[in-house]
């Protein structure tokens, strides 16, 4: 087997370290192919052919996304700047691991002159065939711990029944429709919806902003809000279809039912609706998708005279949030007069790969916290301006998805291929400005503690429209929050689906296979 023995033994080390999941049968087949006494010419040919096969096998055993995903999204990936592509590449490289592999390779090369390493390869394969993998043992231990803290005594769902569970969830969600008032006179307040890309509770914790002044201003906080998506397009479509329940991602495209469209309902309720971006909306056809699949009357707007704060992962200009919001709001409020505005503002200031002028040499992971602090300061300044104007306004925070700044055992930092809870568990809330009664600084907000998503969030807005000013009283907000029904925790992208119930999480692969994993809090 020669030098190939070192390949297998190094992979054993990676497997024991939990860095890869050894594909046992494929490795046995490759080892047999390389150790079999083939005729000379055929033996040399097979050893050369084994090089790409061994590399492909190692890649498949790694936690990296399949190469097919890269080819499927090549048009979007080709728009990435060279700086961002280089940064992404470095995240897949673990310098200490490479150094350890180099040292181990040198040691094994020395031992190869004294020991028959191929024998140890087959011994190792036999041992791994008899014992559960380290990753499986870790999952079993975490699952046992989850079971021990499951106060409800809820057991895991049979994997064979999960498709039925998912189907029942979607059938129930399709039947839900949220009603806004129609022709009931001018709305009593303006509405501002902040759609923030790349902001989860885990990201907030990383940036030490969980208790930031801006977050403390919300009167209703959704503790277990699920954005349902890991990418911007489907996340904002879910928001713009918030009148209806959570449908499969594929049903977001091609035209939703009219009663599902949020901006159309707000217009019928008397609002002047608008969508505003701090970016050009061109990447992956974002702006066109919103117009086509959410029945927007026109393409999203931009404030092109606002200063550029940073450049995106594709090199495009990202404008200063405070200036974009402040300039647009002042101009539209003056033009609207007593009319009421309904603004959806989408910002990508926290997106992975953004470059801030003057610190281009620093990784976008390193700049996430200062970018988040800048965004929160801009939003705080914007909210202060609304308060000074005296216009009654409801501010809704509805982030698209997290940035995965810290990564996890399944994915490197910034990767969002698996729609796990750490990515879709985002901070959502409702803020009431200029309603006459202001919550005391030391008074806690109303916390909605059950699972919730976009329809739950806008049910609060609809309740405020239907109920009038008295609904803003703390006790009425508590009643409104408690009346919201909980939903299943289901999040997805175009390849994977994640379902959580109690302490159990389940992931479905593109091939339709479910696996049990430990749910995240």
Automatic annotation (TrEMBL):
Membrane-spanning ranges: 12-33, 82-108, 115-135
Entry-linked InterPro entries: Alkaline_phosphatase_core_sf (IPR017850), BcsG (IPR017744)
Pfam families: CBP_BcsG
Highest taxon, organism lineage: Bacteria
Alphabetical keyword list: Membrane, Transmembrane, Transmembrane helix
Protein name according to UniProt: Cellulose synthase operon protein YhjU
Taxonomic source organism: Sphaerotilus mobilis
């Amino acid at each position: 087997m020669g030098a190939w023995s070192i390949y297998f033994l190094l992979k054993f080390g990676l497997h024991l370290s939990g860095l890869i999941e050894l594909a046992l049968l494929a490795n046995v087949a490759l080892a047999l192919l390389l150790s079999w006494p083939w005729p000379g010419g055929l033996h040399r040919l097979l050893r050369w052919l084994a090089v790409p096969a061994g590399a492909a096998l190692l890649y498949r055993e790694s936690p990296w996304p399949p190469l097919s995903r890269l080819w499927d999204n090549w048009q979007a990936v080709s728009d990435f700047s060279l700086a961002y592509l280089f940064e992404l590449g470095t995240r897949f490289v673990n310098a200490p691991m490479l150094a350890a592999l180099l040292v181990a390779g040198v040691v094994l090369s020395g031992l190869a002159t004294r020991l028959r390493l191929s024998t140890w390869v087959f011994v190792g394969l036999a041992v791994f065939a008899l014992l559960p993998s380290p990753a499986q043992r870790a999952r079993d231990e975490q699952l046992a711990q989850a079971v021990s803290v499951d106060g409800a005594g809820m057991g895991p769902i049979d994997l064979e029944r999960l498709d039925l569970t998912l189907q029942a969830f979607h059938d129930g969600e399709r039947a839900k429709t949220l009603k806004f008032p129609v022709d009931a006179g001018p709305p009593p307040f303006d509405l501002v919806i902040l759609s923030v890309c790349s902001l989860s509770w885990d990201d907030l914790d990383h940036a030490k902003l969980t208790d930031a002044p801006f977050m403390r201003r919300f009167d209703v906080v959704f503790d277990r809000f699920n954005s349902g998506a890991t990418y911007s397009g489907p996340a904002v479509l879910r928001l713009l279809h918030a009148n209806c329940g959570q449908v499969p991602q594929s049903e977001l495209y091609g035209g939703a039912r009219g009663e599902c469209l949020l901006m159309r309902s707000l217009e019928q309720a008397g609002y002047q609706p608008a969508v505003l971006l701090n970016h050009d909306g061109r990447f992956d056809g974002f702006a066109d998708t919103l117009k086509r699949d959410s029945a927007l009357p026109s393409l999203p707007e931009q404030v092109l005279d606002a200063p550029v704060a940073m450049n995106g992962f594709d090199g495009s200009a990202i404008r200063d949030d405070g200036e974009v919001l402040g300039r647009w709001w002042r101009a539209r409020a003056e033009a609207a007069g007593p009319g009421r505005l309904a603004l959806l503002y989408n910002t990508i200031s926290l997106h992975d790969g953004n470059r801030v002028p003057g610190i281009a040499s620093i990784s976008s992971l390193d700049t996430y916290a200062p970018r988040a602090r800048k965004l929160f300061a801009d939003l705080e300044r914007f909210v202060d301006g609304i308060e000074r104007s005296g216009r009654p306004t409801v501010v809704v925070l509805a982030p698209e998805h997290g940035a995965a700044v810290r990564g996890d055992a399944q994915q490197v930092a910034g990767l969002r291929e698996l729609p796990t809870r750490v990515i879709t568990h985002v901070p959502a809330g409702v803020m009431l400005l200029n309603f006459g009664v202001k919550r005391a600084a030391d008074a806690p907000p109303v916390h909605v503690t059950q699972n919730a998503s976009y329809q739950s969030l806008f049910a609060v807005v609809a309740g405020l429209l239907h109920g009038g000013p008295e609904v803003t009283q703390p006790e009425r907000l508590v009643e409104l929050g408690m009346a919201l029904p909980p939903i299943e925790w289901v999040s997805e992208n175009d390849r994977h689906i994640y379902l959580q119930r109690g302490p159990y999480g389940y992931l479905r692969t593109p091939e339709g296979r479910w696996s049990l994993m430990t749910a995240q809090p």
